[in-house]
C-alpha cells in the first residue's frame, strides 16, 4: 500500500513522483502531516449532533484553491508530522473524548497511511469514519477506501472548466468530482441515521457558493437533480465563503462576500428541484469559523 507513494497517482493530478524523494502538487511527502484534532461543533446538524465531529485536519491539498479557507494548512503546509501508530492513537483519543465520528478533513493525499492507521484500530472504533474531501478524486482511490469509510462528504466546487482552471488549476475538476461522487454513493449507499439523528452511513455533498458564480452553482444543482435521486444523498449549500486578505488582486472578483441575493437564488433553485439537505446562515461567513490550527490533539 505504501508503495503507492513511490509513483504517486492517488488523485487526478497523477504526478507520478516518488514521494520518498520529492513532493507532488499536494506538497506532501510520505510523512503524515496534520494541524489539529479536536471536537468540531459547526458541521451540519447530522454530523455534529451531540459532542461534535472528531475532526483531523490534514495539511497539504491536491487543489490549492486561491481562496482556500484553510490556507495556513493547505497551501502553507503548517502541521505536525505523525506516523500511522500516532494517527491511530489520535482516532482513539477523539473517540474517548466523545466525538460523534472521526472526520478526516482533506485526506486524499494520505489515503494509504489512513488505511493503515484504520487497520490498527478499526475493531476498537465504535463511531463512523467520515471522508471529507475537496472532491477532486479518482474512482480507484475511492475503491481503496471500501470497508473503511462510512460517510463521504465530498465538495462539488465548480461546474465550469474555466472556473476550476482559474481558481484551482484544475480544468477537469467537475469531470472527476462528479464521477467520484457517484462512486461514493454506490459504495456508501443511502443515508442512514442513528437514534440521535446522527448520520452513520451515506453521502453528504457540499457546495460553497462563491461571489459572482451563482450560475455555476446552479449548474451543479441541476447535475445533482438529474443524476442523484433525492433520497440517495444529502446536499449542503454553504454560505461561509470569506474573502481573506491573501487572495491575489488578479482574483479581484472574489475579494468580496457572497450577497444575500446570490446565496438565496441558489437555495431557491435547489428547493425548486426537490434537493434534500441543508442551508447556512449568512453569519457563517466569518474568519471566526476558521479553526485555530494550533496542533491541538496531536
Ligand atoms: S496525491 Fe499529491 S503527489 Fe499524489 S498524485 Fe495527487 S497531488 Fe500528486
List the ligand species.
iron/sulfur cluster
Low-confidence regions: none
Give the % helix: 25-40%
What's the N-to-C terminus distance? 24 Å
What gross morphology would you assign? Answer: globular
Percent of residues in β-strands: 15-25%
Return the average pLDDT rounded to an integer.
94
Largest sheet descriptor: 10 strands, mixed
- Helix and strand pattern: EEHEHEHEHEHHEEHEHE
> How many β-strand stretches?
10
Q: What this model shows, in words?
A:
This protein is α/β, with parallel strands linked by helices and 298 residues long. Helices cover 29% and strands 17% of the residues. The protein contains eight helices and ten strands. It has helices at residues 71-74, 84-96, 111-121, 139-144, 161-168, 173-188, 214-227, 260-272, and strands at residues 32-40, 53-58, 80-82, 102-105, 129-133, 151-154, 192-193, 199-208, 234-238, 277-278. Strands 1, 2, 3, 4, 5, 6, 7, 8, 9 and 10 form a ten-stranded mixed beta sheet that branches. The longest helix has 16 residues, at 173-188. The chain is globular, with a radius of gyration of 18 Å. The mean pLDDT is 94. The structure holds iron/sulfur cluster. Iron/sulfur cluster binds next to loops.
Amino acid at each position: 500500500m505504501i508503495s503507492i507513494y513511490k509513483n504517486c497517482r492517488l488523485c487526478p493530478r497523477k504526478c507520478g513522483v516518488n514521494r520518498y524523494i520529492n513532493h507532488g502538487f499536494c506538497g506532501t511527502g510520505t510523512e503524515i502531516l496534520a494541524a489539529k484534532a479536536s471536537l468540531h461543533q459547526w458541521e451540519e446538524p447530522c454530523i455534529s449532533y451531540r459532542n461534535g465531529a472528531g475532526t483531523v485536519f490534514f495539511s497539504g491539498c491536491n487543489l490549492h484553491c486561491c481562496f482556500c479557507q484553510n490556507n495556513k494548512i493547505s497551501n502553507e503546509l503548517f502541521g505536525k508530522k505523525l506516523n500511522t501508530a500516532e494517527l491511530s492513537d489520535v482516532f482513539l483519543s477523539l473517540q474517548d473524548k466523545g466525538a460523534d465520528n472521526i472526520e478526516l478533513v482533506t485526506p486524499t493525499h494520505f489515503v494509504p497511511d489512513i488505511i493503515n492507521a484504520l487497520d490498527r484500530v478499526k475493531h476498537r472504533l465504535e463511531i463512523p469514519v467520515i471522508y471529507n474531501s475537496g472532491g477532486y478524486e479518482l474512482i480507484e482511490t475511492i475503491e481503496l477506501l471500501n470497508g473503511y469509510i462510512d460517510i463521504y462528504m465530498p465538495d462539488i466546487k465548480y461546474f465550469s472548466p474555466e472556473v476550476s482552471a482559474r481558481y484551482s488549476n484544475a480544468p477537469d475538476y467537475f469531470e472527476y468530482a462528479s464521477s467520484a461522487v457517484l462512486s461514493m454513493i454506490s459504495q456508501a449507499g443511502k443515508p442512514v441515521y442513528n437514534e440521535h439523528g446522527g448520520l452513520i452511513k451515506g453521502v453528504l455533498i457540499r457546495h460553497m457558493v462563491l461571489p459572482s458564480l451563482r450560475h455555476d452553482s446552479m449548474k451543479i444543482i441541476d447535475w445533482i437533480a438529474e443524476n442523484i435521486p433525492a433520497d440517495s444523498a444529502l446536499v449542503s449549500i454553504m454560505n461561509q465563503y470569506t474573502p481573506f486578505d491573501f487572495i491575489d488582486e488578479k482574483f479581484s472578483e472574489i475579494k468580496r462576500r457572497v450577497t444575500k441575493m446570490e446565496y438565496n437564488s441558489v437555495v431557491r433553485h435547489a428547493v425548486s428541484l426537490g434537493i434534500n439537505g441543508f442551508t447556512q446562515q449568512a453569519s457563517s461567513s466569518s474568519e471566526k469559523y476558521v479553526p485555530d490550527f494550533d496542533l491541538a490533539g496531536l
